[in-house]
Amino acid sequence: KPGVQADNVVLTFDLVKQFEEIPNLSAKLRTAFVNSDSHTITEENSLKPDTSYNEIRLEMNYLF
Fold first, then answer.
1. Judging by DSSP bridges, how do beta strands 53-62 and 8-18 pair with one another?
2. pLDDT tens, 16-62?
3. C-alpha dihedral, 59 to 18 to 34 to 49, nearest 10°
4. Residues 6+ apart with CB under 8 A from 33
5. pLDDT at 2
6. What residues have CB less than 8 Å from 18, skipping those under 6 apart?
């Protein structure tokens, strides 16, 4: 499919915490760095905008 960015480099760091007070509760903090290919050409022969991004996400999981 023309103009679709297929080449990404993704680097993630995860910190996971299990809570002793609540055995089925866990938390995960994820930091991700995504670098996309900046040389993708669209159907109109122009460069596609860079879609690189960084994110920080906090997840709380409880298994019941």
1. unpaired
2. 999 999 999 999 999 999 888 777 777 788 887 777 889 999 999 99
3. 0
4. 10, 11, 12, 54
5. 56
6. 25, 26
